[in-house]
Amino acid sequence: MKNFGAFHTQRLDIRPVSIEDAPFILELMNTPKWIQFIGDRNVRTVKEAEAYITAKAFPQLQKYGYTNNVIIRKADHIKLGTCGLYHREGKDDPDIGFAFLPAHRGKGYAFEAANKLMHVGKYNYGLTELSAYTLEENRASRTLLERLGFILIGTGSLPNNDEELLHYHRLLDF
C-alpha cells in the first residue's frame, strides 16, 4: 500500500500527524470543544501526546495508508486543526473526523480539508463510502457533515464507547 503522504488545497497543506506535532495535538485535545464533543482522552503532557500519536495514528497509517492529518495554513504555516480517516475495529467502512482550534473555526478550513480528504480516499485508496459520527448537540459538526453531502442514517456508537452518536453516511460518488 502506498504511503498516504501529504496533499494540498488552495489554502492548506495536509499531512499525516507526526511525533513533532505532539505539542499541537496536546493543545487541540484539551480545548473545551474537543473535551465536550470528542471526549477527554486524559492527555496532559507532550509525552502523553506523543504516546497517543504513536498508539492511535501510526498503526492505522501503516496498515491502511491513511490516518489523522494535521491541517496547516499555507500562508503562514500555522497548524489549524486535524482531519482524518479512521478505520475502527468492528466497523465496515472508515469514518471521517475533524477538529480545529477555536481561532480557526468558521473559516471554511474544515470543509476544504474534509472535501479534499474524501477525494483522496476515493481516488488514492478506492474507498466507496464513509461514515461520520457526532453528538446530537454538536451543531457545527452536523452542519459541516451535511454540507459535505453526508446523510443522517440513525444512531450508533464507536468501539470502546457506549455513548449514543448520530451516524452519518456518504457514498463517494463524485
TrEMBL record:
Span of domain N-acetyltransferase: 12-172
> What keywords sit in the KW lines?
Acyltransferase, Transferase
Which top EC class is given? transferase
Q: Which SUPFAM superfamilies match?
A: Acyl-CoA N-acyltransferases (Nat)
Name any one Pfam family assigned in the record: Acetyltransf_3
| Matches recorded under InterPro entries | Acyl_CoA_acyltransferase, GNAT_dom, N-acetyltransferase
**EC numbers on record:** 2.3.-.-
Q: Name one GO molecular function term.
A: acyltransferase activity
Superkingdom of this protein's organism: Bacteria
Identify this protein by name.
Answer: GNAT family N-acetyltransferase
Natural source organism: Winogradskyella pulchriflava
